[in-house]
Amino acid sequence: MPHHSYRDFHAASVADPAAFWTREAGRIHWHKPFTQALAYDQPPFRDWFVGGETNLCYNAVDRHLAERGEQAALIHVSTETGSERTYSYRELYEEVARFAAILEAQGVGRGDRVLIYMPMIPEAVFAMLATVRLGAVHSVVFGGFASHSLATRIEDARPKVMVTADAGLRGGKVIAYKPLVDEALSLAGDAAPARVIVVNRGVAEPPMMKPGRDLDYAELRERMQDARACVAWVESNHPSYILYTSGTTGKPKGVQRDTGGYAVALASTMEYIYGGRPGETFFSTSDIGWVVGHSYIVYAPLINGMATLMYEGLPTRPDAGVWWSLVEKYRVTVMFSAPTALRVLKKQDPVWLKKYDLKSLRALFMAGEPLDEPTASWIAGELGVPVIDNYWQTETGWPMLTVCRGVEDLPVKVGSPGLPVYGYDVRLFDEATGEEVGPGQKGVIGVLPPLPPGCMSTVWGQDGRFVSTYFGLFKDRLVYSSFDWGIKDEDGYYTILGRTDDVINVAGHRLGTREIEEAVAGHGAIAEVAVVGVSDTLKGQVPQAFAVVRDPSQLADPDSRERLEKEVIARVAQALGAIANPARVFFVNQLPKTRSGKVLRRSIQALAEGRDPGDLTTLDDPAGIEQVRQAVQG
Ligand code: ATP
Ligand code: MG
For the AMP-dependent synthetase/ligase domain, which residue ranges apply (predicted)? Predict the structure, then answer.
């Protein structure tokens, strides 16, 4: 229920953060009240709710038992195995408390790390909640990462126990996890955990089990049928988890999250941003391996007494109506997805969006990449509900720019995620001078510390790296850098222009990749595009575009190819001026993307400049990078 002027609300949150967040803190259960809302004597480090004791699992599960024990908590649907099951809060409690007892029996206690490398199955959520129940720290690694990537994360987190499964499934294809795990464990050497708990789904060859190290989950569960672990109360700033960034720009950073601040921040977002109410169903199409999955598949919906829908499968299998059928069946009220997935659905037959009753849905939220105008307008038109862009990062844990319609019913502007979210003192800076820039001027998006509750506490085990990486933008002033480039309008609405690493400098004019990409994508024939800056002796850099066409038959002969390239270039010239003109437009069937669906511009750029594409461990499908290689080599 809108009850404020959003601008006043935001101003109050940054003018007196301690007072603002003290009011919000009442949203969660505190075993012991905090004595100080904010401690900020060692900037940029800060502690929220100092001295308070709480527990994430208790807030997500136990707290609801009295009032909503029989209500749905976790709805799991897999179109890969054809399974569908709903766990009530009571059943979720039984599973989680038992799983925690199993971990405890393996020696897991406060501060110990549990590495979770799992497909999208309920046991993955049980394992996460069980870990924080014990005051231990989870590190979820996206299932399907290759053994090398897994090994580096094992080495960094040094887990006591690892939880995995026999296999994951994707589009009907079995990806055996256990052999990858075995290889990663041998690569990790003495950082490898002593115990590995294996959930055998029975979808792959029975996994090789190493005696003394590997334990079968079903057997443990049977043996410990009646065991339940108690909640371990932890101080608010005790770490709840480590999560690595997507690795789009280079080496992933291990983001460390606190406990109390995170719970409070997530609880507040359900009212102010998402408008999800207890008893309703929240559907986030992300994966638990990413921050959206942590915050909006697992913790925020459960902390707020909602049912969360967890989906294993593709958005297009068995058909492109599968998500919408779930919205109808489970009366989803709030949905959360990513532009990359929506662009896939946009290419499908429009009938799939007409087949189901979507009346329950109140809003669709999007994050992960710039939400382009054509995709946003299309889906908003089809669904007839607001489509709201959220801009945030693994580091922040919850949105940093959006339209907080739970505070005031402000307009959504297509192409913009909106205004700074309460708690975030967002500013735009000129990178060279360190001066703040005003409306209409491009700059790097920064946040004045102290960072609000739930944002990263530090880089796991590397406090120095936290300070130098995130606060090293200016010598004389502490500013958190997002490494994204943006611009804001007179109303304060931001537009993301791309990553600072990807800014293209043509003869002294600085252009965000997003600006040129939007112009290219405005051509009706183009489905998706990535633009990179390629070094040029004359101009410094020139833009090159790599575009996927909607209908490949348009490229049947060299003439039509050339015609389309010319049209695209003309369009960019018209939208942005000749300075932004791509020197070339290459047509490919597919762009290289990270496993979280982000375009790997750094590798495209490297290939376009004849260099090595660099670290490709986060690459989803090697075909994308091959396409680019072939395109530039002619
Ligand atoms: P790494 O930090 O390892 O290079 P990454 O930045 O892709 O990887 P994430 O934390 O998963 O890792 O992604 C956050 C980034 O995604 C943001 O900094 C921004 O570049 C982009 N992003 C997220 N949401 C949006 C959005 N709504 N609009 C535009 N860009 C977005
Ligand atoms: Mg990043």
Answer: 62-445
Ligand 1: does its nearest atom lie under 6 Å from the Cβ of 370? Answer: yes
Note the pLDDT tens digit of each residue in 394-424: 999 999 999 999 999 999 999 999 999 999 9
How is residue 398 written in tokens?
């919850």
Q: What is the pLDDT of residues 221-250, one digit of tens each?
A: 999 999 999 999 999 999 999 999 988 887
DSSP-derived pairing of the beta strands 363-366 and 332-337:
parallel
Token pair belonging to 435? 């001066």
Tell the residue nearest (CA) to atom 14 of ligand 1. Answer: 393
The partner residues of 243 in beta bridges, in order of sequence, read 255
Residue 267: CATH number of its domain: 3.40.50.12780
Domain that holds residue 130: 6-313+390-483
The total number of structural domains that make up the chain: 2
69 backbone φψ class: left, alpha, beta (φ>0; ψ -120 to 50): alpha
The verdict on 155 and 270 lying in the same domain is yes
- If one residue of 149, 156, 245 were mutated to test the ligand 1 pocket, choosing by the most ligand atoms within 8 A of its CB, it would be 245
Q: Is the dihedral of CA 372, 373, 374, 376 positive or negative?
A: positive
CB of 133 closer than 8 Å to CB of 127 = no
- State pLDDT tens for residues 58-103: 999 999 999 999 999 999 999 999 999 999 999 999 999 999 999 9
H helices present in 385-448, as ranges: none
Number of the ligand 1 atom closest to the C-alpha atom of 391: 27
| ipTM for this prediction | 0.99
Q: CB 276: neighbour CB atoms within 10 A? A: 26
